[in-house]
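Box 3.1. Reading complex inputs
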Amino acid sequence: MGAIITLCILGILLLYLGLFKMNKALLPVALVGLLVALGFTLSAWNTDAAPLYNGMVVFDRYALSFSALCIVVTALILLLSKEYFRNISEHIAEYYCLIIFSLTGALLVNAYHNFAMLFVGIEIMSVALYILVGIRKSDFASNEAALKYFLMGAFSTGFLLFGITLMYGASGTFDLGALRNYVTSAETVSPLFYGGVLLMLCGLCFKVGVAPFHFWTPDVYDGAPILITSFMSTVVKIASFVGFLRLFSTALVPLDAFWTPVLLTIVIITLFVGNASALLQSSFKRMMAYSSISHAGYMLFAIVVIGENSVPSIFVYATAYALASVIAFAALILVKRMSGSDQFESFNGLAKRAPWLAFALTIAMLSLAGIPLTAGFIGKFMMFNNVMGSYNVTLLVLAAINAAVAVYYYLHVVVCMYFKNAEGAHAGHTTMMPAPINYKVVLGVAAVLTIVLGVYPDLLLVLFGG
Amino acid sequence: MENIVSNIQGIPLNHYIIFCSLIFAIGVTGVLIRRNVIIIMMSIELMLNAVNLLLAAFSAYRGDASGQVFVFFIMALAAAEVAVGLAIIIMVYRNTKSVDIESLSKLRW
C-alpha cells in the first residue's frame, strides 16, 4: 500500500513542480519517487499477505512481483523521456504526472481483491492514458488514436461492468475470495454467472488487446507518441494481464470446463491474426503493435492452462517482453529522430552508423522472437512447457508454427540493419549523432538484463520459490 | 428506504434483468452503428446506466448495500471519463471541424 500512496503523492508533487517552473527537477524527483515506491514494494515481500481494507486489496507475492516489474519498466521509460517530451510541448510536468498516475492504477489492478478495485484501477490507468495518447494536440494521428482509444476503452469498460454486475447478481459479492466460495460450494451455478464470465472475458480481452477485440491496438499504438506507446505496450498490458490472471486463477478455476474452449479459440485467432498482420507491415512501429498482439496471445497460454506454473511463467514472459519492447522503442526514437520515418528502410545500414544501437536492437529482436540465450526464449519455453504438461498438442503445434513465422518479421529488422546499405536520402548520414547518455544507460541495462535472464532464469524463478 | 426497497421488490427480478439487458444492447448497437462521436458517447453512457440500474435492483433484492455503493463508483468514474472524452472530442473538432467518426481515417488497419 505504501507504494500506491507514494505514487499518488508523487504525481501531485510533480504537478506542483511544473507549476513553479522547476522543469529540471522533474525527472530526478520522479525517479526518486519510483525508487521509494519500489522500496515499499520490496519491503512488503516477506510479510503475510492478507486482504486489507475490508478485502479490497491484497499484496501477495504475485501482486508485489508484478508491481516491482511495472515500477522498474516505468523508470526505464521515464529515463528515455529526458529530451523526448521537451520536443513535444512546453508543459512537460503533465506527462510525468499522468504516467505516474497511470502507474498507480496499474499497481491497483495488480493487487485487487474486489471488483470495485479492479474497476477503479483500470479506470485510473486508462483515463490518464487517454490524455497521454492525445497529447500532441495538433497532430492528426495522435488525435485519432486518442479518440479511438477512448471510445474503445469506455466501450470495453461497459462490458466489464455488465459482467461484474451479472456475477454479483448470481453470487451476491464483489470479493474474489467469496466468489471462489460461491463457485466451489453452490450446487448449480446460476446461468447469470456464466453470462457474467463471458462478458468479463470480452471486456478484459479488449483491455489486453487480443483478437478479435484487437482492432484498436495497431491504430492507437501507431498514432500515440512512441514513448507513450512503449508505456502502453509494456506496463499497461502487463497490469491488465495480471488482473485477468488473478480473476481466473483465484475465483474461476472450478469453471474451467466452461471458459477454456472460449479462451482457446481466442488464443488461436490472436496468434494467427497478430503474426499474419505483422508480416505485412512496412512500418516498424506498426509491426511492434501487431507483435504485441501476438505476444498477448502467448501470455494467454498461462490462463488457458491455468495452474501453479502460470504466475512464474507469465512473470518471466512479461519481463522479457517488457525489456525487449523498451529497447525496441528506444531504438525507434533514435532512428526516427535521425531519419524522420519509422519505416523499415530507415533502419538500413544502422549497423555501420551505430553498431552498439544495432547490437542492442538485435538482442531485443532475438528475445522477442524467442531465440535461446535471451530472456524471451525462457518465457516462451515456460509457456510451451505448461501447454505440453496439459497434453494440448493442437495448441502447441499452432503456437510453434506462429513462433516460426514471428522469427521472419523480427529478423527482417536485423537484416535491414546489417545487410542493407542506406540509400537515397539517408545515404548522406554516414555517422549518426551519438545517442544521449540516458539512452545508452537504458539500452545497456535492458540488453544486459535480457541476456543475463536468458542464461540464468533462476534469478527470477527464485522469487516464486521455484 | 424500506418503502423503496419493497417497491423495487414489487417487480420480479427477471423483468429488471431483461429490461437492463435491452438497454445495454441498445447502447452497444448505438456504439456500433452510429457515426457521430457525441451519440456514440451517449450510447456508452446508456450502457453504463443499464449496469447501474441492474446493480441497484440486485442490491435491493439481496438486501446488500455493496451493490449500491458500486453504483457510486461507476457514476464518479463515468463522470471523469466523460470529462476527458469531451476534451478529446473538442481537440479533434478543432483539427477536423467535424465530429463524424468517418472523418478520422488517417490510420487504417
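In summary: Residues 1-251 of chain A form one domain.
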